[in-house]
């Protein structure tokens, strides 16, 4: 009961942090077999794919783009199943690729890192070694099916060298199908995007959000104002933000409830934020953009938060970014 009250008041109970992307939140909870009817709100994209299947005119490269958590990865899984690859996440002729952390010389996906409680101060990336694996995979004959399939999640998180290597793979004809999934397609090399058939995915309506979240057992999220405000029509994002909110220490959220006005609060916030993983720090900046805009409608304040987020994403030292931001807020 206390947990429910806490959630409704946006003062969550702290739980272990999981840096799993919004699109993955839906993907982890789907049944092994999907049908098109399981995917809501993506009528145009599904119509294009169904038409390609019916006419036996499936392309060699696709780009699924749109907001995180609206069903791009679910659609990719369903499409691959409809191509005849049963249980595509484990099929020997299907390769799923997602960004990885580098930990003690090993590449770990976000879900594996969270499972083993591996903490990281860097962002996950799609690395050149992974693209080399893709090239080798597509360069060999299929074991069971007639073609091989590669699905790349969060494709915008490719290192420059990896993107250039992937472009060379796209330029060389292969007996395979490549599906890129991205929430920020503008960050992809234009030469990569231009070689793909581009399908745009949309945000869901309130009714569709209710149906998806209820189906997945997360109907309580609908009562958490901040989470629904951040989600903006994405059930995967709603689940993601809900879990992130619950993972942040309640004391820190209380300190951040309003923009700090004195140096003591700045010091407390800086110390608390420094202990968090980089992904959690970025999430807090996004959360504050929503929260403080509701309170102040101050565009300059939101711009400062956005600039801080961009600086951290550009690998500027996070503590320095936070200290500068917080001092600007009290000056």
TrEMBL record:
SUPFAM superfamilies registered for this protein in UniProt: P-loop containing nucleoside triphosphate hydrolases
Superkingdom is Bacteria
Q: Name one GO biological process term.
A: DNA-templated DNA replication
- Short name of any one Pfam family annotated for the protein: DNA_pol3_delta2
Q: Which NCBIfam families does UniProt cross-reference here?
A: PRK07399.1 (NF005638)
Alphabetized PANTHER family for the sequence: DNA POLYMERASE III SUBUNIT DELTA, REPLICATION FACTOR C / DNA POLYMERASE III GAMMA-TAU SUBUNIT
Q: What is this protein called?
A: DNA polymerase III subunit delta
Q: Write down the species.
A: Scytonema hofmannii PCC 7110
Per the UniProt record, the lineage of the source organism begins with: Bacteria, Bacillati, Cyanobacteriota, Cyanophyceae, Nostocales
